[in-house]
UniProtKB/TrEMBL annotation:
Known EC number: 4.2.2.n1
One of the record's GO cellular component terms: outer membrane
Annotated Low complexity bias: 45-56
Ranges of residues in domain Lytic transglycosylase MltA: 126-283
Residues of the signal peptide: 1-25
InterPro entries: 3D_dom, MltA, MltA_B, RlpA-like_sf
Name of protein: peptidoglycan lytic exotransglycosylase
Taxonomic classification: Bacteria, Pseudomonadati, Pseudomonadota, Alphaproteobacteria, Sphingomonadales
């Protein structure tokens, strides 16, 4: 996965895993925060063969093709598909020339929880950076430490499938990995783990939350970095911390307002940053990017992050929602990523791309959505037979 939590959700921990109110949105615009329901069984899913699927685009078809190698071998945590279900649509995708006909012919629309959902957005930041420490570049991005232990809990208990525990060994005991405050104080310094350095520590913090980004180097070239792991600590939204402390007004929490506060309060800023104990570790990415949970580059305005406990990663989705500026969206998109705050049926995060427009749209995206999962016909037929 890219590893970030959604940009708006990073600002207020009032929903999903960290917040119910995206940045800049009024309280009524966000979904409520009940505990995430258990994944639905196949028998609970309405098969909706009469559902109108929006025409697929060439970009959606290309994104689906990129997912096929992983789709053919990965285990679907939602239980809706098995690897063999994707053989026919992937074979058809390789030869398809008409995207609309391809999606209509190879998939059956299925709704989970009547398709009612919520859509936020994320983007790929670009900030000033350097491969080495230099005057004006002092905020480090760290590589994955060699002593970080990552345990798949599903190997120990089936009901923990999909969950991971991260820490380090102290003798024979697995103990928590250093939190952000300890890392800021130098817990990883001098170990050769610095991958790159940012000019602005606050922009670096938000790039870390996104989980990937571009560093604009002093010579004008671009270095791309992406999620490699995380220190295992729970995410805390600093926007909520600032709100609770009365430093920002209710309804006035956004990425830009948080950045402005941090820059205006350099003495208080380190404690606020340290209030989020979660730290992301990075690797350099070459070629297309950023890389999503499917192991392939995500596509702007086509790829979405979803909860794999409900939606098969790699599956096409018919998405109807509203983009910032009251622009309607009705499109086929591909579930190719996951996110720490993207939990529950039909909770999706739209990848907006890179640049100022993507940043603005991702920051403002917060709207109800209608989500229809497009399942391979073999999977849908199996559901109908139950």
């Amino acid at each position: 996965m890219i590893g970030r939590v959604h940009l708006g959700l990073c600002c207020l921990a009032l929903a999903a895993c960290t917040t119910t109110q995206p940045a800049g949105a009024p309280p009524s615009a966000a979904p409520a925060n009940p505990p995430a329901p258990a994944p639905l069984h196949a028998r609970d899913l309405p098969i909706a063969p009469g559902t109108t699927t929006p025409p697929g685009t060439d970009a959606a078809l290309a994104a689906f093709r990129r997912s096929c190698p992983s789709l053919r071998k990965r285990e679907d945590r939602s239980g809706l598909t098995i690897a063999g279900d994707w053989t026919a649509p992937c074979a058809a995708a390789a030869a398809a020339t008409d995207a609309g006909e391809f999606f209509a012919a190879n998939f059956t629309p299925v709704t989970i929880a009547a398709g009612n959902g919520f859509a936020t957005g994320y983007f790929e930041p670009e900030i000033a950076g350097s491969r080495t420490a230099a005057p004006g570049f002092a905020a480090p991005f760290y590589r994955r430490p060699p002593n970080l232990v990552e345990a798949d809990l599903g190997a120990f208990a089936p009901d923990l499938k999909g969950r991971k525990l991260r820490g380090r060994l102290a003798g024979t005991a697995l103990v928590p990995y250093p939190a952000r405050a300890e890392i800021m104080a130098g817990a990883l310094a001098g170990k050769g783990l610095e991958l790159a350095f940012a000019a602005d520590p606050y922009e670096a913090f938000f790039l870390e939350i996104q989980g990937s980004g571009r560093l604009r180097l002093p010579d004008g070239s671009i270095m791309r970095i992406g999620y490699d792991s995380q220190n295992g600590r729970g995410y805390v939204a600093i926007g909520k911390v600032l709100l609770d402390q009365g430093e920002l007004p209710k309804g006035g929490v956004s990425m830009e307002s948080i950045l402005a506060w941090l820059r205006a309060n350099p003495a208080k800023a380190p404690a606020i940053l340290a209030a989020n104990p979660s730290v992301v570790f990075f690797r350099e990415i070459t070629g297309d990017g950023p890389i999503g949970a499917m192991g392939v580059a995500v596509t702007p305005r086509i790829s979405v992050a979803a909860d794999p406990a409900f939606i098969p990663l790699g599956a096409p989705l018919a998405v109807a929602t509203t983009l910032p500026g009251n622009r309607p969206l009705n499109a086929v998109m591909i579930a190719q990523d996951t996110g720490g705050a993207i939990k529950g049926a039909n909770r999706i995060d739209l990848f907006m791309g890179a640049g100022p427009e993507a940043r603005a749209d991702a920051s403002a995206q917060a709207a109800a959505a209608q989500v229809t999962v497009l399942l391979p016909r073999a999977a849908a037929a199996r559901l109908l037979a139950r």
